[in-house]
Amino acid sequence: MSTTRRLNRIFAPDGRALIVAIDHGLIDGPCPGWEDPAATIAKVVEGGADAVLTSYGIANRFAAELSRVGLIIRGDGAATNLGGPSDGSASSLFFTVEEALRLGADAMVVTALPGSAKEEATLRNLSEMVRAAHRWGVPVLGEMVPGGFDSPPELRGTEAIAMAARLGAELGADFIKAPYSGGFEEVTSKCFRPVVILGGSKKGSETEMLADIAAALDAGARGVAIGRNIFQASDPVAMTRAVAALIHDGASATEAAALLP
After folding, report:
1. Can you spell out the DSSP letters for 217-247?
2. Closest to 260 in 3D by CA, of 228, 225, 224, 236
């Protein structure tokens, strides 16, 4: 069964996607910028998000607010910060494709951590989700984070990211979410599926974030799957518009930054 129709709910006709990741409540609870889900969703939708990546509970409760954008539901889970800072690493699959389809999901997302202690378990999670999702024509976003979210510098280099992205594609993921690094064309040119970059923790400078996105797009990235650097921005609507200008309008980083307050 083809995944094309659902992928076209996420990727715009230009083949690019502005995905806003708002699944942080699974680890952080009501973190800054995410205390009022309805308000935050309204801001990123107004700003021009193509899709939202979120949890099952948010997708269920805020279906009306999410109805205008593509919907990517997280299928796996991780330890929370209640027992101390969490590394955000996935543990097991929490939700099925069938459950997500009942909410109108256009795709599933699973995190895999090649090069970490959870490598085999998380790669198995990804392969199991791909197998189940493809029975229904549901695409899978493989979030490929070499070494884990607190990985050492040697596992955040271009070579490691390129290997992780390719591994996700080899396991059947339809599109890939990966950290950005310099020389990103090494990642995109060797991965036969679209690659979008993740944002990670909130960066100090919004203009630096825009510059990184512009550089990634120039290197062949097909968009972003960014959360805190959008919904924790000083003006989330303006930040979403600025990222959309980079992705869909061909704006430079300077032109996009001019859209910020």
Report:
1. HHTT--EEEE-HHHHTSSSHHHHHHHHHHHH
2. 236
pLDDT per residue of the chain (261 residues) written in tens, 0 to 9: 789 999 999 999 999 999 999 998 888 899 999 999 999 999 999 999 999 999 999 999 999 999 999 999 999 987 777 766 655 566 789 999 999 999 999 999 999 999 998 999 999 999 999 999 999 999 999 999 999 877 777 777 999 999 999 999 999 999 999 999 999 999 999 999 999 999 877 777 899 999 999 999 999 999 999 999 999 999 999 999 999 999 999 999 999 999 999
Separation between Cα atoms, residue 260 and residue 37, nearest integer Å: 22
User: What is the Cα–Cα distance from 230 to 89, expressed in whole angstroms?
Assistant: 22
Hey, where are the domains in the chain? 4-257
Q: Which has the closest alpha carbon to 54: 81, 39, 34?
A: 34
Token representation of residue 234: 């000083």
CA dist 10 and 193 (Å) reads 14
Superfamily (CATH H level) for 4-257: Aldolase class I (3.20.20.70)
pTM of structure: 0.95
- The single-letter code of the amino acid at 241 is R
31 backbone dihedrals φ, ψ, rounded to 5°: -70, 165
